[in-house]
Amino acid sequence: MGLGRILVVDDEADVRKTVRLTLAKAGYDVVEAEDGEKAIAAIKSGDNPLMVDTVICDLHMPKVNGLEAIAFFRSQFPSVPVIVLTGKPDVQNTASLFKQGVVDYLVKPVDAAKLTAAVQKAVKGHVLFKDKFTT
Length: 135
Known about the structure:
Helix 2 runs parallel beside helix 3. This protein is an alpha/beta fold. The chain has helices spanning 13-25, 36-44, 66-76, 91-99, 112-134; strands at 5-9, 29-33, 54-57, 82-86, 102-107. The longest helix has 23 residues, at 112-134. It has a five-stranded parallel beta sheet, with helices on both faces. It has one domain: 3-Layer(aba) Sandwich (Rossmann fold).
């Protein structure tokens, strides 16, 4: 059992691979999805929904974009922290994303140490939340 399970949603395979390798090396289990639609399908699949401790989500993707995917995650899984990872930062979007409960906003290319620290902080917050409500 790793330190937590992270869902990485990004349409760029290279970005997903870099994030997966960085987080796997740090001890996390990583699940990948190439767009919001696949991420939503993955998290809802079967009778046993995918339990994740943090979602890392790009904003600009085909089909279901990051804003739509984040809105879905926040409404269906409000306790799961969401980290935005984008190549096109947008100051106006940033404020509304934080209001929706996004816990961090990272810009590509992200430094491995910064990514790992953001995920550690998010997962720790989620685990504390889970413990509080499941004991």
